[in-house]
Amino acid sequence: MAGIVRVGVTFPPNLLRQLDELIEKMGYENRSKAIQDAVSMFVSEQRGIRDAKGCRAGVLMVLYDHEVRGLENALTHVQHHYSSVICSTMHVHLSERECLEAVAVKGDAAEIRRLSDELSSKRGVKLLKTMLTVI
Q1: Which of 56, 63, 67, 90 could pair covalently with 109 via S-S, beta carbons 3.0-4.6 A apart?
Q2: Does the model's pTM come out above 0.85?
Q3: How many CA atoms lie within 13 A of 88 on its CB side?
Q4: How far from 117 is each of 13, 18, 19, 97, CA to CA, in Å?
Q5: C-beta neighbour count of 60 within 10 angstroms
Q6: Residues 62-76 as b or e (16 or more Cβ within 10 Å = b)
Q7: Looking at residue 18, what DSSP letter applies?
Q8: Could you tell me which CATH number the domain at 54-134 has?
Q9: Are 44 and 114 in contact (CB under 8 A)?
């Protein structure tokens, strides 16, 4: 197939198992197509966030391992720094190790993007999903 580049990707075993289960349930013929679709969605979502300008409102969903040393303090410190765009937070205990925070935001898109980037870059943050709308 022209224009295709082969790359290697490493996965934690549990994540790969979950991916394979979804691939089977969704009827994908192979991992490559599923991963291509996932990457396409990621690129599209990130472009929307990266290109956003002006006033936005939304939610940052942060899934993290609360047993990672210093992570909760680091997340709190970042959130205090961005108090100008954070309206509210909700904390949910999911398991012995995992917590979910929903961070409601409203303000300048660039400032929300910086907040999202800072939170997602912390060691122990497993997932950060940003959902924004124009206001």
Answers
A1: 56
A2: no
A3: 3
A4: 26, 26, 25, 23
A5: 24
A6: bebebeeeebbebbe
A7: H
A8: 3.30.70.1150
A9: no
